[in-house]
Fold these 4 entries.
Entry 1:
Amino acid sequence: MEHVAFGAFNPRFYGVSMFLTDADRRDTLNRYFEHPDSFPVRANDGSPSLGEISAISAIDHELRHFHDFLLSPFGTIMMGLRMQATINGFQAMKTIQNCPGRFVPVPLIRWMRWDAAMRQKWIDTTGASYGIERTEDVVPIPYVEDPSKSDLQKGLHPVQDGVSHEIRFQQYALTAAQAFVSMDKCRQRSFSEYNLDVTADNIFEATAHLVQLQAVWTGQDEASSKLFFHFVMNSQSKQLKPLQILWMALQKSITVTRALELCTWMLLGSYEQIWSRGHPANRYLQVLTLAAAAPDHEIFSLPMPALQLFARLDALMQAGAWSDNLAAAALSADRRSSVYARAAETLKGGFFDTLFSVATVWYSDQRAVRATFAKDPESFVNPLRYLNERCYPIPLVETRFGDDVHEREDSLDNLNARAITIDDQDRQVLSYIVRLKSDRTAHDLDDAFSARIVTHMVDFLFTDEPVTDLYEHWCRSQAKKLINKELISVY
Amino acid sequence: MNTKGLRVQLLSDSESIDAIGKIAAMDSVATEPAELPASDQRFGIAEAAGIIAVIHTSAEIALLLAKAFKLVRGQKKITLRTPRGSVTIEGDATTAEDVILAKIKAAAII
């Protein structure tokens, strides 16, 4: 089976996203929710269907991403960058309408990275066909080869009073670009050994697939879990390669629980050394090196509580204590929370209020996750307990339809769901945002919904290139309302 | 349209993009590799690939796509992205050039 995502976790939406991209998936889930006891469905030859198994268990996979993000120092860094990108990007959007130039090139980061010669080449070939005759027709933004190396203050950039709209726009835009590019670099940072390139995403995928494997076993049946396990271990997806190799190296002794413990330890690296030995991929290679040299080492084979395992791994790898690493990340989250609280005093109203409210929920969630984990790590690394006890926060769920929209007969009126629609009658739904449990309030739902509209617009303006025609059209029209200039895509 | 050509991006799976590259080379349509940032917005495209083509008319891109569809196996989706927006064309070896051209014109993005 092709490795086509059933969902995603990306802090652009504070929750998890499920992709109901074709009729089969929608049909499977509808049938499952109506008659859960009739699953797993068998094909005519009696074998389970991998597509259905995956569709039903994908939510547990995505929830694990959400919880790993809240627990890990890496996730704390990503949330800081996400907020930097969104708030500064939105500030840039608000100032852009007062800048000279009739056109805004999107994605802005690509235009930033084009030097004068490249920009002129684009104007001469393509821009001229759309009424762009000279660089002055485009909002002014300086050439920056690598925005992540900008010396502007990270976080929420304080633009001084009295500067021109143009400078104000440029400073906000560059601070947002710095965050966007840094997020990409964090995700793409790889460590290589044994002809294997490993990224942080690979480790997050490993834990999520291990949890999903357990979810298939407990929620469906043994035959389904065997099929899913075969898929995980034989998939050609690069994301799963590191897990496959670790499993092979330890095949004599490894269990799902021990693999989940090891991979969770990889996510608990030092906040200060996140670009080197504290990076999840680097910690993966430290474990793999030991596994290759001593596959029978008791770290891999001897039953022991997670606390003991983590302490022994810390000692073996000469790493700082995992608990200190989490404490450092928690301190950083405290500092960020204070910054957001101060910023919320001046950036008031509308979308800003919702962004800061979402940040407050994140702050509270990461504290809760770290506290529960520190008290009882088994509740997180024992997949059965993790799934059965559900003692970690359940986020909001975003449902997206890929190339399609969901056509409704009437606009949505539901206490537990909101719909992002692309028509004036609110009947063509791009995505739903749903509250599954009462630990999220209707207020949280409204905030997440508004914040999502902001990230749709900001991401489209700066970096993202959605391939769905309707979605692109919607982003373009939403952003245009706010900036009052013509958006022009540059390739 | 500008006689110097228009830079557009074509996005699909790698098989379709390879086919477009080959047809473009035979038909003397200038192309460049496209830089594709990682995105989780590519629903359903496992390994997205892209190419920049410099085209002069809508008919030229329609012909390029019709020929590319004949080179690939089965039904494919190719997204054409221009400065004004995007249109996704679904087709196979039987998809006619004028059908593709009509879709491009209906999208009003060139």
Entry 2:
Amino acid sequence: MKTFLMLTGLAGVLAFGTACFRLFAPSDPGPAETRIEACAGLSGTALTDCERRHGH
Amino acid sequence: MLLGQRTIRAAVLASALFGFQTTAVAAVACGPVDHTHAAWSAILGRRVADGRVDYAGLARDGQRELDAYLTMLSGACAADYERWTKDERLAFWINVYNAFTVRLILDHYPIASIRKIGWLPGAAFRTRFIPMPGLKNDAISLDDVEHGTLRRAFREPRIHFALVCAAKSCPPLRGEAYRGADLDRQLNDQARQFLGDPAKNRLDVQGRVAHLSAIFEWFREDFESAGSTLTSYVGRYSGRNLDGYEVRFLDYDWRLNE
């Protein structure tokens, strides 16, 4: 019983910590300061692909 | 379009409750975006009056229509996006913010305030519940839309008169969608409405004090980077010269905008 309670407690702490980590992690930094207007607002590979298509 | 409405709702619920990113962005195919945003306009036209939202009515019989619209937004793809005009992109992101905020509220309704959502402060704004695989390769949060996308990439301070975070002190939710073709007129109109509402901004002409929304305090740099002082920016939309006015900021009322 004691072991069960300890494991349950540990799992709870782990789950709470994970949730906190996700919440307090920096938000999406957003698009880099692209100078290509057509790509403004894109992020990640969508931005990279857009810039490549527009010659950067 | 492979992204289902049920998937969006599951993503909203799971991330708002637990504060982690969902995997709802997995299998998605691109689809066209209707730049008239007619579906959103139809919902707003029926469920918004004087900037207040009939969440109860929406919860009762408007959710399927809303989810269909959200599915269309989430299905936007980069190859199309690149061909949109700047105002179409701006209108898209403003509508994303407002429509997904309404979805989030509906998933917790009845609720007294958006700030009651989640276990930790600001959870509603930080959880990544908005599937946006084509444009962001990921799910994003309301903060990502506002700070990471709109403020950073577009530098248009009037967005602060259009983004509605479901609180009474927010700008009024417009009774129609934002559209690229009308965006300049719509944003000017929002600015005048917001500044003309004495519950949100008041001018004491005799005492020469401008009692402004906290929005002007939080985003002061955005308004001043538009090449003006805060008072000259506000004066432009309130129809009054505010040079020499003292500025005080009002408390923000976070109760639900219903």
Entry 3:
Amino acid sequence: MRKIKEFIIEKLILLCGLASVFFVVLIFIFLIKEGLALFRVVSPLDFLFGKSWYPISEPAQLGILPLILGSLLVTFGAALISVPIGVGCAIYIAEVAPGKIKELLKVGIELLAAIPSVVIGFIGMVTLVPLVKNVFHLPTGLTALSGSIMLAFMAMPTIVSIAEDALYAVPKSYREGAFALGATHWQTIWRVSLPAASSGILAAVMLGIGRVIGETMAVMMITGNAAVIPQSILQPVRTLTATIAAEMGEAVVGSEHYFALFAIGVVLFVISFIINVSADLFLHRNK
Amino acid sequence: MKRNPLRTQKIAFSFLLFSTLLIVLPVGFIVAEIIIKGLPAINWQYLSDMPRQGMRAGGILPAIVGTLYLVSGAIIFALPIGVLAAIYLSEYAKDNLRNRMIKLSIVNLSGVPSVVYGLFGLALFVVFFKFGVSILSGSLTLGIMILPIIITASREALEAVPQSFREVSLSLGASKWQTIRNIVLPNAISGILTGTILGLGRAAGETAPILFTVAAFYLPRLPKSIFDQAMALPYHLYVISTQVPNVDEKIRYGTAFVLLVMVLFMNLVAIIIRSQFRKKKKW
């Protein structure tokens, strides 16, 4: 009797262990199922490289190039801001900060990661957007630049905590060796710790960027949502994620528009898949 | 001129400190801004009243209740699956292809953009299973989203229990499951609790997954069943900041304040439990 009970419990545990695989596959199947339906009416090339996104005009034009470029522009801007600052902060926490301050900073970074994106978006709307508008004398402050700045704050906690872990994992003996040879603290960091932790730091940067590409609410609230090919960082843009979030509410289930939004979901899923798998490879390479 | 290594170090360290401040100060500003402008809006009426006049007056009770329902639903779904999956990974799994697949899937689940979870929830729960736009659909979507958080934290906690504990229990004649239930789980409980609370915080703050699966724009009553739509705090904040014109700034900040306090409080509790546990650790 006890054996049967154990058997059932162990099977249940295995089943739950496999649940994550099941859900990933399920997500992919359901995105593909709805997304592929689009390609009966629009060719994949026209979808990916079409220059206009007018989903509700007659006939609908469903080219997502402006959205892809919008996502890339905002992400690139956010990476430009968050990577140097995030890595710098990670080095400070891991190598320079004294004990108590270090713990305090780590808690702070963790709390920053916890701030909901809609709150970041709200704060960006009421503080940064008017500021950008006034500084650059623009008709609207809802621009790619505002989006990049706020999103940088969403990427930073990811970058800081993973890069800090990578630096922490560098064996102490490496540093002691460098010190024994007469290197200064900074020379040790620059020539020894950073190269030793480089693949972890690269993974941190990639995961930070992944977080920015997938970010939805903040970006929808502050980038202005104009689905045109962006010419400058001081223009409103629309990202892939914001398009789904803003338009799915109005799209009729089973319509071309509905399928197109799912196809965008497939694109996002594939991007996040590539980023996460390669970051995971980098993270485990040095172990 | 030869470069002076100590001066280089000074410059480099100032840059590091500067980047840290560039993160810390804006974050301090964000939190302070919301507290200073949000706190005056908070009173009993604001927390316990229905929204009125198209959300321009009254309170946010249905949004608070909706979020509590969603978060409870998500955790009821994700906690058992997550803990059992963590037990599998820490106690049963060997290093083979199947388990590398599992680990890869967990990494992936945690990286899927939140709006894609929303699409998935819409296609699977709302349309395919015909749960409709409901608390049930939203909770399940959020539950899948927080699964990797619970699995990762629980697994770390389980793996931190020393191998010798298990060996002693097994040598006394306990079966593998008895060992897990009576020895491993009790020693890992605070880590599991930490992961659960972090998952709760994440579920409470996310907006994109609930956009098309549960969120009601304006519903000035409490939900009646799990098949009912509901308002939720993060979505409510989005709505009153972008969709409804002429909302008093105080009301917006008040909503942001309640949401932020809720989420930060949960995270602080999780951090405190974790550090208490690390201090008390017996091994």
Entry 4:
Amino acid sequence: MKMKRRDLREAAVRAFFFACGVLAVLVLVGIFLTLVTTAVPAFREIRLSEFLLSKAWDPTSPEKAEYGILSMIVSTLMVTGGAMLLAVPIGIAVAAYLSDVAHWRVREVLKPVVEILAGIPSVVIGFLGIVLIGPVLAKIFHTGNGLNALNGSVLLAIMALPTIISISEDSLNTVPKAYNEASLALGASRWQTLLRVKLPAGLSGIIAATMLGMGRAIGETMTVLMATGNARAFPHGFLDSVRTMTSGIAIELGEVPYYTTHYYALFAIGLVLFVITFAVNLVADIVLRKYQEREQ
Amino acid sequence: MKTSTKKGIVQAIGFFALRAAMGLVLAVLLLFLYDIGKKGGGAISWEFLSQAPRRGMTEGGIFPAIVGTFFVTLITAILAVPLGMGAAIYLHEYAKQSRLTRLIRLSIRNLSGVPSIVYGLFGVILFVNAMRFGTSILSAGLTLGLMTLPWTITASEEALKTVPNSYREGAMALGATKWQTIRTNVLPYAVSGMLTGTILGLARAAGETAPILFTGAAFYLPFLPKSLSDQFMALPYHLYIMATQHHAIQQVRPLAYGTALVLIVLVLGMNMTAVVLRYRLRRKQR
Amino acid sequence: MKKITITTLAILALLASILPAAPARKMIQVKGSDTMVNLVQILAEEYMGKTPGAAIAVLGGGSGTGITGLINQTCDIANSSREWKPKEIDQAWEKGVSPRFFVVAVDGLSIVVNEKNPLEQLTIAQVGALYRGDVKSWKAVGGSDKAVSLYGRQSNSGTYVFMQEFVLGNKNYSADMKEMNGNAQIIEGIIQDEGAVGYVGVGYLYDQDGKIRKGLKVLKISKEPNGTGFLPTDKAAVDSGAYPISRPLYMATNGKPKSDVAQFLAWIVGPEGQAIVEREGFFTVGEGKYKAANDKNFK
């Protein structure tokens, strides 16, 4: 009898932990399904081609309600692309510095310092974009104010840097010592070894780092909401004021009457966002796993 | 020029470029902290921290926002910590390599990449509307809890990994069941590490704005929240409205800086506590 | 290890006990209108100071947020700096909500430019042309040869909608307009941007000493091309309608307001509340048609 009770308890405990584990899957699927079911009604009134390809977003227009998100998609890509252009070279360089140039004591200090950058909340970065970075950019580029795509890119680059640095550095550190030693033995300098042996060997990790950083930039809301100006127009340059998909949702979700086409359309934007970030993270995942398998 | 000298020069330039990159990143970080520290420091006082905003929020303090952030983070912890630990225990102690396990891990990694505004959307549908919690500490805390779940799971699993397998094997050799083994030989040694790791996730939750925008944060409340169904003021949202929606933005700019400073001190303080705790734990375990 | 676990759990339990899951304290929920939010927040603060037991929560958002809130029955009072659209009134009726409107202040919607802009006056038609994007250079309206940099609000703003109806002739805004999160951000933007133009509630023009913000210039607006232009700060012009873009600021309730809500509203349109309205830079309701409509709605 005692045996049976114990078995029952074991099974119950195991079931509880199993439920916790499966919860993650349930939440992910739940988010996806919620977005889909709330977004689909939008397309009773909006043509999918208009939604994805029209540059005009004006749901409250007194003339004709417009639901095109192309400008928002392009704005998101611009701001993210700009951020990656800044963050990837600098991030890899810093990762290389930490793994190859810095004295180990210096590295012990600097690694947590870089992590501090990751800990700064996005609303604070957005705030600094308004009061600090924006005015500086306005002075340099002679624009009226600094609320534009460039400001957004700079801020997002700062936010993506810690991710890129940390994962790239891990990747460089796990390059087998044998590669290094062989290269140095053949007479290459440390720099040449870094450039021609280590970086290529750690490339998949670096790519994964970049993709994760990119995913973070695409999904960022508060920073771009505060610092990019939020104009609905299709952007023509980095000094234009832009509105990303995330800002688009944040701006209008509070005012939209529930269960209207406008409401459903906002969830449709959320769905597009979800799919994009899911795809980026999936690719990063695959790349990371391939690189981990190769190391074994 | 001798090849070795050319190599030497190239290396010197190359390494200098790398150092410069590091310097740039450090400079930006220091610039940010200095700006907020200097301009925010001027606004910090005991009144600022202990009083509510007055006179159209141009005077007074941010106490309700501090309290609100505290309570909402508490709810976040209550959801994310036990469930995160549970999921980590399942993944590390029970699960076998199977498609389901791979799916769970994939889900966890993807959840951490979902944009915060999408969590906000989900929170509105599930907690505010479907479960009828309305805009409240509960809705916002649960939304943040879901967002923090991937972090607590990962951190807890890391902690479990540090418990040597010999502990487990020893217990099982003596005839203990799985759960008994975990309870007596694994958990006691992993729990502190788990809690330490989750603090990082909670620090992030405390600083998030997008998930609470539509699930409970309020512009101005005359009283402190007294129950889970109350709305609340919160530090990150307060900073947002002081910087963009207040009617006298320039006048309250120092207050905004002060709010930013308090928020940063809170978040970085939690981060540093976690790091220090983890460091001491690791030393003890060696 | 066990000690740390136990202590942590004990602390968590203690803290959680401070949050009884009792029903929310009954507060009057006021939502909406960035134009009005600071005015209403100050009114709420002073009213609560004078009235023991009163509890008012001010929740912000644009006018659209407030209107949605009243329709969804998530607030008691909806502020709006514009009239409700017929569609919104229909939606309210469909959901069993019957909105009643009280005018609590009057606003002279101000068109502001950077102080370096040489212009002093525009016609209301010219302002419309600027904001529709029909003209892109200041030269076209008699100014210098500089590109027009448009600042405005977002679609949840009553000010945005009001401008669209009364100044843009119900046409679309230029997609190049920078859509700021609030009146104050518009002001900040204009001060730094020489080619800028923006529209803000008259209460936002002043700094804490009661003077017009440094760096701003408020334009005179005239109805006709060669007519006299008036400033939005000119109370007589606003009251008489000579200033063409003035508007009432509304608070809406669901049906006849309940006693505590009615008391608050009555105080706002009474002498004490109206003194605060004036102090904050807006205009009082006056003794005319707005007062008559209000009195009727209290019954």
